[in-house]
Design brief:
By secondary structure, the protein is α+β, with helices and mostly antiparallel strands. The chain is built from 26 helices and 5 strands.
């Protein structure tokens, strides 16, 4: 027990130890050392997944090796099956986001079956990374924010992991910032800092929180507070000169200096950050720093250089995958080309910008687009329109109000007409449906009456007439044994006829009320039905799959009668030599298929020749809310009838 506890402490210290290395990186050597210890497969599997995550960016072969090792060690641990799906989904996110999203939800469905804080934490991680697919791969920040608020954060709170909770607050603030909800972003950034401040291993997330809050203040025009949080970030990162988080610092500092109109300093900071990003092979942070370089050059009025940087950034991924980034760059190219008097190119970039902007921004842009069109076509500035006098204003206002009122009345009239029209169609459809339902009920009542009459006649035939015939046969047999030999052949012929009569009587009684259905159920009754129709001229095959025994007996009888009518039609009217009856059930759906090689028919004949057989089939199918599909080609051989009905199941 002591050695097991020691291993857990080593695992936690390896996962959380950021103090002696770059922030955000686990100690790979410490993790690998745990795999050499005498610990159970569950711990080794988790360590392997952590190592796979750590090596993903630098050594994909080694990362894949650890992932396969973790999957192998997870066998036999149901909880780790969900953990395995989570880590596999993380590897797929960039290449196949839709598949990754599906796997995150599969992992969540497995993990929610387990109690405990460990399961809660992994479920929170599943929802968090699922939300990231919407933000970064599908460019849908609103769904990202909703999933964090309603799923990931509540689970992280229940799990009690303050470090991961602080990260979720930070990511939520990032989502609000992209939605231009700066006040909400600020509130969650401060909450993230409060949550992370005293947590071990907080350097990466705390640095990001400082940077994001500084950007928030810079965008709000408060350069002094932005500088305060950037200073806190610089002090935090000082022991780690090559940490990735320095790239965020340089981006935030360049933005702050540009807003403070210290353009040369801003350019120097941006260039320093770009050099570090290239050294660390971080393309997206490099592209963010290029955007800050563009802003500094534009505000410095070095317009040609600013335009070159923006056009270079326009060709780079993944920066251009994000709509917010595209809006920033498109608008930057609009104002740069306009200041350069390059009106045609400014107009083209403005059209691209307008496609991405929201409805409010769109109305504001139309004026500017019109102005650029006039500049483009006439090469002169548009003159301002002089103000109209008060009387004209009143007249125009009254005219507009009258037009608006007329349009409103017209729209209300059209809307009322459409509502009345829809109500009429709804009423007609409801009435038609009610009539059809009533017809089905009447037809079913008639069929029930027929079934009751069949039961009575079958019972009378079997109990009364059948008994009389059997008794008569016995008496004749006694007389045949007592008479002389000359009359015996005639009596034996009469006895044989009596046997045939009894057999025929039993067949008729069986057809009128299938005793097999009452005793052994639907499947046995259908098989017996196929056997009764089989003859030297006609071969009938019966296949059944998944027929449940708990279908109510009334519905079993309806299905039996449908099959009986179909087989009768195939034998009697189509003169089929080979018939297939197939029945199968899936949940409350029951499927009946009859295929034969007999003479086909045209479906129009069914409407012209309304035989009782087909009418009873349609009535029974309608009562079970089913459908009929008939495939037949006129007089060519072969017919296929497919019926789908809905049955109840007894509990």
């Amino acid at each position: 027990m002591k050695s097991f506890t020691l291993v857990l402490i080593l695992l936690l210290s390896a996962v959380r130890s950021y103090a002696q290395q770059a922030p955000g990186k686990f100690d790979k050597d410490s993790l690998a050392h745990i795999l050499e210890q005498a610990v159970n497969d569950s711990i080794k599997a988790r360590v392997s997944f952590r190592l796979s995550d750590e090596w993903e960016e630098t050594d994909t072969t080694l990362s894949k090796k650890y992932m396969q090792s973790g999957k192998r060690l997870s066998k036999g641990y149901p909880f780790l099956q969900g953990v395995t799906l989570y880590y596999e989904a993380r590897r797929l996110t960039a290449a196949a986001p839709d598949s990754a999203a599906k796997m995150f939800m599969q992992a969540e469905n497995i993990l929610k079956k387990f109690p405990g804080k460990d399961a809660l934490l992994f479920r929170s991680m599943c929802w968090h990374d699922y939300a990231r697919v919407f933000h970064f791969e599908k460019d849908d920040p609103e769904t990202y924010v909703n999933l964090l608020v309603n799923q990931a954060i509540p689970l992280a709170q229940k799990a009690g992991d303050q470090l991961y909770l602080g990260k979720n607050y930070l990511d939520l603030a990032y989502g609000f910032k992209n939605l231009k909800e700066y006040a909400k972003a600020k509130a969650y950034l401060q909450l993230s800092i409060e949550t992370l401040r005293n947590q071990q291993g907080n350097i990466k997330y705390l640095a990001t929180a400082y940077h994001t809050l500084s950007e928030n203040y810079s965008l709000s025009g408060d350069s002094a507070k932005a500088a305060l949080y950037l200073d806190s970030m610089r002090v935090l990162l000082a022991p780690y000169p090559e940490a990735n988080e320095w790239l965020d610092y340089y981006a935030g500092e360049s933005m702050r200096l540009t807003i403070a109109e210290k353009f040369e300093q801003s350019l120097a900071v941006a260039e320093k950050g770009i050099a570090l990003a290239r050294q660390l092979h971080q393309p997206y942070p490099e592209q963010r720093l290029l955007l800050q370089k563009f802003y500094a050059l534009y505000n410095k009025k070095d317009l040609q250089q600013a335009r070159s940087v923006a056009l270079d950034l326009y060709s780079k991924q993944p920066f251009m995958n994000n709509s917010a980034n595209r809006l920033l760059l498109f608008y930057g190219l609009v104002v740069t080309n306009e200041d350069l008097k390059n009106i045609p190119e400014a107009f083209q970039w403005l059209k691209r910008y307008s496609y991405l902007s929201d409805s409010v921004a769109q109305s504001n842009l139309e004026t500017k687009i019109n102005a650029l069109e006039i500049k483009f076509r006439n090469a002169e500035h548009q003159r301002k329109i002089t103000e109209l006098n008060a009387s004209n204003d009143k007249a125009n206002f009254a005219l507009k109000r009258t037009i608006l009122l007329s349009w409103s009345l017209g729209l209300v009239s059209i809307l009322l007409f459409m509502i009345l029209l829809l109500a009429y169609f709804f009423y007609k459809n409801k009435k038609r449906t009610a009539i059809q339902q009533e017809q089905i009920k009447v037809s079913h009542a008639m069929l029930l009456g027929q079934e009751e009459e069949r039961k009575r006649v079958a019972r009378d035939l079997h109990d009364s007439l059948g008994g009389l015939l059997a008794s008569t046969k016995i008496n004749l047999s006694k007389i045949a044994g007592a008479v002389n030999t000359s009359n015996r052949p005639e009596l034996e012929g009469i006895i044989a006829q009596m046997d045939t009569s009894v057999t025929e009587l039993r067949r008729i009684a069986h057809n009128m009320m299938p005793e097999m259905l009452l005793r052994l159920g639907l499947e046995a009754a259908l098989k017996d039905l196929c056997d009764s129709f089989s003859s030297e001229k006609t071969t009938i095959r019966f296949l059944c799959f998944g027929i449940q025994t708990n279908i109510p007996q009334g519905e079993q009888l309806i299905i039996y009668r449908i099959a009986q009518e179909l087989l009768t039609n195939a034998v009697k009217h189509a003169a089929a030599k080979s018939i297939l009856l197939q029945c199968n059930q899936r949940d409350n759906k029951f499927f009946i298929t009859v295929e034969d090689d007999g003479t086909g028919f045209n479906e129009d004949m069914l409407h012209e020749n309304k035989g009782m057989g087909f009418i009873s089939i349609k009535t029974r199918v309608a009562y079970l809310n089913g459908t009929i599909d008939i495939v037949s080609r006129g007089n060519q051989p072969g017919t296929s009838i497919n019926i789908e009905v809905y049955v109840a199941t007894k509990i």
